[in-house]
Structures are given as C-alpha cells and as structure tokens.
Design a protein that fits this description.
alpha+beta, 2 domains, 14 helices
Length: 426
C-alpha cells in the first residue's frame, strides 16, 4: 500500500485542478472562461467576468492590517510558475455545490504561544474575510447563479522560544450558503452572525472547525447546526472525498487545505507530473542508496523509495523495518510510537538525510516503520511519521527537539492518527 493509499484521508482538501489544465490566463488578470473545462463553471465565469474583475480590483485596492494578495495556489512553492498566479477568484465545486471562491495569502505571523488556534482563525476572519465579504456583497448580485461564497486564506504562525523561531502555516476555509453570505454583514447582531458561522462550512487546516468569534476556544463542532446537514450530504468525513464527485468527472478546482481524518485504505491519488519527474530524475540515486545503504537504514526490500503527490505537495515515502521488538500486551500504541521515533528513527535521521537527494524539491517525508511483536516475522503494526522536510532539517541541525518535529508532523498507527507526547509516554 503506498503513501497516498494511507494518507489520502489524512492530508487532503480542496484539490488543485488548474495545474493540470495548463491555464493560459495572465498571472495578473482574472481567471478567464477559456481556462476552465467544466461547462457549468465556464458559463458562470463568462457570465460574471466583468463583476469578478471589478471585485478583484477592489480587493487589490483594499488596505488590510497586514499585506494580503490573491493567490490561486496556496501550496505553490517558491520558484514554481504557478506561485505567481494571482487569479484568486473563481467558481469551483464543493460537495456538489457551485461556490464562488476567493483565496489568497495573508502576511500575518501569529504567535501560537500567545494566540490559540481559534483566536488566530478569528483574527484572520475579521481582518480578511469580513472586508472581502463586504466587497463581494457590493460587487456581486444577490441572485448570482451559484450556491455559495467561499474563502480560503493562508496565514503564518510562529512558535518562538529562547533558542529558535519555528514558523508554520495555517489555512482558514469558510463556505457560506449564498443567502447567508449576503445576510452576514446586513445584521449588526453578533449573535446572529455567530449563528450564520455555526451553520456554515468552516475548516482550519481542513479540520472541521467551530469558529467562535471573540472567544479563546472554538465551539464543539458536533453541537453545531451544520453537523446534521453535513452528515446527510455524505457519509464520508473527508473534505477531499466530498470534492471528488464533480459533474463531468473533472477534478475539482482549488480551495486546498489539508484535512485530518480517519484513514480509508485502498483509495489512490494519481502521481502528479512533478512527482513522476522527480522519480525519474533521482531514480538512479535512490536505487544506489537502497543497494549501498538499504541494510544500514533497515529499508524494506519490497517497498521502493518513492516520490508521491498529495494535492499540490510532493512527498518522499520510504518503508523501514524497526529493529526494536515490543511486547504488545505490555505496551501501548503511544509508547511504541514514541520509542520507535526516539530510539529507532531519530538516531538514523542525520545519516539518512545525507543519503537522500539533496537538491530534490519536495515538501514532506513519510517514514513508514513496520513493527514486529516478539518472534513474529511479519509486521504486526505500521507507524507513519509524516514530517515536513523543513522540520527534519532543523532536527538534524540540532535546532529543534524530537518533540518539536512530532508537533509539526502527522503520526499514524495502522492508519489512525494519534497525538503523541514523547516524554509523557516513554
């Protein structure tokens, strides 16, 4: 089973389509109808092109507390051509509904030690979503032929202590029903506005989120009005699964926030052109590493090291055999996961990173570690550590601790995500 099989329901979201379409619109103009394949979305883009262009100009002319710019691909890396694509206003599909989506990057860096996740999302909502929503209600007709208005805003987080600053990113996604979008600013009542949010689709990093304005902590999502209608719309908790079934079989457009949910084995993501290019470019080096250092790094011989794609991100996946042996009856999954990282994986990272392609452009590494119990020859447990490449580099340079790496990563035990405090469980 490859990484995409196991992690599709863990790191997915509103999936990028236009990268595959070869959009020809200028990086400094509105998305043009000829750059859209879906007939319904293409018709809407053509019908409202003048209003969308006017909306774009109004957003560009608005002063936000921190700089904001429209962006179509929030996960694009520096140096990629799509990084300069400022066509952040377009019609997309979400759960079978047509949504007018506005996406972009907000250049604020919130201190995560001072502001909670809810407070960071709330600040971004008030700073960016509310002003743009006001422009939408001024520029776009109330009877626009779509089902909802959506926003996807990327912003930075900063975790500072005495030794280093660790910067990360979060994405706030909000999808309003059309009537609620136009009603939100027409009511001065904060209680009424919160009620609209409670029945809208709100995500932070793809996680279903009960955004509570003016509060330190979010609301319980299960208690909100939207939880029942969403369950009725789909039996799957995965945002990507809900986005997958679009008319005419197209892959949906943007709104690309990762989602964390339970694994659904057997679902495959096709490799992107970038992943296939990297695999071809570095195949010889990866083969040489397996031949020369396969035993040194305890690589599984029947599982090649592969570049894989998760939305707009590229991931390097490797499968390893744990040299530790556990008595499953005398240890918990948390203790095994902690000891596997600290005693097996972490000591290898400094040497392993030297063996991997140094100039390959990818974002994440998935270390799949097979655990065996006692004298059993076959793996009885698989632990995946899906780590940002940047955090691994910091770790081998002694800038962060192993717990810092875990905090920035996703840990799965047999496909189910767990929270992991290394010191507490060892």
């Amino acid at each position: 089973m490859n990484c995409a099989d196991r992690i599709n329901r863990v790191v997915c979201g509103f999936v990028v389509m236009s990268l595959l379409l070869g959009v020809t619109a200028s990086a400094f103009s509105q998305v043009l109808p000829e750059g859209i394949l879906n007939p319904k979305l293409k018709t809407d883009e053509a019908r409202y092109l003048t209003q969308l262009q006017s909306l774009r100009q109004s957003i560009d002319g608005t002063t936000f507390p921190y700089p904001f710019h429209l962006a179509r691909y929030l996960n694009a890396k520096d140096g990629q051509r799509i990084k300069s694509d400022r066509n952040g206003i377009e019609f997309v599909y979400f759960e079978g509904r047509v949504v007018l989506k506005v996406s972009g990057s907000y250049h604020a860096a919130f201190n995560s030690t001072l502001l909670t996740e809810n407070e960071r999302a709330g600040r971004t909502f008030q700073d960016v979503v509310v002003p743009i929503l006001r422009l939408v209600t001024q520029q776009i007709p109330t009877d626009i032929d779509c089902d909802g208005i959506g926003f996807e805003i990327l912003y930075d987080t900063r975790d500072a202590n005495n030794t280093y600053d660790f910067e990360g990113q979060e994405v706030l996604t909000a999808v309003f029903d059309r009537s609620d979008a136009f009603a939100f600013l027409n009511t001065p009542d904060d209680t009424k506005r919160q009620e609209i949010l409670n029945r809208s689709d709100i995500f932070v990093n793809g996680k279903d989120f009960g955004l509570a304005l003016g509060h330190r902590n979010p609301f319980n999502v299960q208690a909100l009005e939207r939880s029942v209608p969403r369950q009725a719309r789909t039996s799957s908790p995965s945002v990507s699964a809900r986005m997958a079934a679009t008319p005419s079989g197209e892959t949906p457009a943007v709104l690309a926030a990762p989602v964390v949910s339970q694994l659904r084995p057997g679902f495959k993501l096709p490799p992107s052109a970038d992943a296939m290019r990297l695999q071809a470019e570095f195949q010889a080096q990866l083969n040489a590493m397996r031949t020369a250092d396969g035993e040194r790094f305890h690589l599984e011989q029947n599982a090649p090291v592969m570049f894989e794609s998760l939305g707009a991100q590229i991931l390097l996946h490797m499968t390893m055999r744990n040299t530790l042996s556990f008595d499953r009856g005398a240890s918990s999954i948390y203790k095994r996961a902690a000891q596997t990282f600290d005693l097996f994986l972490a000591p290898e990272l400094k040497y392993l990173m030297k063996a991997l392609p140094a100039n390959a452009e990818y974002d994440l590494i998935d270390f799949s570690v097979h655990n065996r119990s006692g004298s059993e020859k076959s793996a009885t447990e698989t632990i995946d550590y899906v780590c940002p490449l940047k955090s691994i580099h910091f770790f081998v340079e002694d800038k962060v601790t192993s717990q810092d790496v875990i905090n920035q990563s996703i840990v799965l035990v047999n496909g189910v995500r767990i929270a992991l405090n290394l010191q507490a469980v060892e």
